[in-house]
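A protein record pairs a chain with a discrete description of its three-dimensional fold. The following entry can be read in just this way.
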Amino acid sequence: MQELKPGLTASKVFRVAEEHLADRVGSGSVPVLATPALIAFMENVAFEMVESRLPSDKTSVGSFIEVKHVKPVAPGGEVRIVARLEAVEGRRLVFWLEAWSGGELIGYGLHERVVVDRRGFLEKIGG
């Protein structure tokens, strides 16, 4: 985990598709980006940043997320997620996340991931 240092950043652009809409995922009744989809986008960027820097027998799992979703995005809109690794505390990783669309901040929050042994983790759940 020597490559995981505070200050690392990653970003990725997502396009809001039908399956990301609140009225489709059951989190609301309007056809705009659903908060659960926004959270999934955010987790994905943090996950990918970490996964490429871990040995193949390790992975990371989400353990906490707190997100403020402040502006809607229509179907077809682009959302750019920016993740910054804020802290590395043993196996615990803390990220600051921001979501942008059309030059506006649409969401932000904190996310924690924990580095685990892939096989051991799956054995604990019977997998």
